[in-house]
Every structure is written in C-alpha cells, then in structure tokens.
Amino acid sequence: MFFLSMRNNSAIILYRPSTDNIVWSKTGPWKFQHDVDFISDHQISVFGNVSFRMFNNNDIPDDKQSYVFFYDFMTNNVSVPYHNAMESMRVYTASEGLSEVLPNGDIFIEEQNRGRLLRLTPDAVKWEFVRRVDENNLSMPSWSRYLTEDQVRDILPILEQSKSDQ
Question: Assuming Cys at both sites, which of 34, 46, 133, 150 could form a disulfide with 137, CB separation 3.0 to 4.6 Å?
Fold first, then answer.
C-alpha cells in the first residue's frame, strides 16, 4: 500500500496496488499538503502547507501557518501536536516542505520557501538552521533528511569505503 497525495484537492488516498483499489481517502483539514508518512500501524503525519496561492517569501502574511497534522485511523481523529512550537517559529511554506517524526518524538521540519530546517518538540524549538547564500538570498534545502545516530553508524562505513575506492 502507498499514499497518493492529491495536493490541489487537499486529499490523501491510500491505494493498494495488488487489488487496484483505493482503501481509504480523506480531504483536509490539511490544505495543499506534502509529505505523508506512516507514524505507526494506525497513524500518519501530513505536512499541511495550508496555502491557496504562492507568496513572495518577504510578503508572507502574519496569519499564514503550516502545520503537521496527525491522523489516527483507529479513532478517526486529527491532531496537531506540534502546533505551539510551529506557531512560535511562524513555520510557513506555501509549497513543498516536509516533516519527519523522530524516534524520541521530536520532529524535523524542512520549511522549503524560507530555506529553514528546524527540530522541534511539541512545545519548543531545539534548533534552527538557515543557509544563506548572501544577505539577500537563501539556499533552498530541497528534500533534506535527518539521520539518527544509528543511521549514521550504518551508512558511515559505506561512505568511507566508497571514498577509498575512488
């Protein structure tokens, strides 16, 4: 099974290729969403851009806010557990963007249009990274990934071997 994200319809579809069937679908409360992830056997996260049109990055209205929504298939409930931290940092990207719930419950967020990477708890900011090209331009993160210590430990020998093979 895999998800189809119908961004312009603000809809998510769970599709089972083996039977060629749509087994579940839901529209909103997310809007123009990106990056649907399985969190557990009964829960998904959805990065909701919550936008209807593109804005110049310097002209983002104060009331625009992206959110990470959690949907629970068992209870049919939607929650926004990182609401406070995301709101405090004015996380907003009109397009793209992604999130990843980390093993300890923190969340990693790529705010594409503002060139920011963030690590948040439900109520606080652990860190923020912005890569500037110069004082007027930002570097876009473009599909960043957060690697856990175990993932780094697994991949480091492969990278080192690749380097020595060159």
Answer: 133
Residue 114: enclosing H or E segment and its boundaries?
A: none
Q: What secondary structure letter does DSSP report for 117?
A: E
Question: Would the pLDDT of 110 be above 60?
Answer: yes
Contact 112, 66 (CB under 8 A): no
Query: Whole-model pTM?
Result: 0.82
Return the structure tokens found at 9.
């319809």
User: What average pLDDT is seen over the chain?
Assistant: 87
What would the DSSP string read from start to end of 126-141? Answer: EEEEE-EEETTEE---
For the stretch 89-92, contacts whose Cβ atoms lie closer than 8 Å and that sit 24 or more positions apart, written own/partner, are 89/118, 89/120, 89/125, 89/128, 90/60, 90/62, 90/65, 91/65, 91/66, 91/67, 91/116, 91/118, 92/50, 92/51, 92/60, 92/64, 92/65, 92/66
CA distances from residue 3 to 51, 99, 145 in whole angstroms, order as listed: 21, 16, 20
Q: What spatial distance separates the first Cα and last Cα of the chain, rounded to whole Å?
A: 39
**Residues 48 and 94 sit within 8 Å (Cβ to Cβ):** no
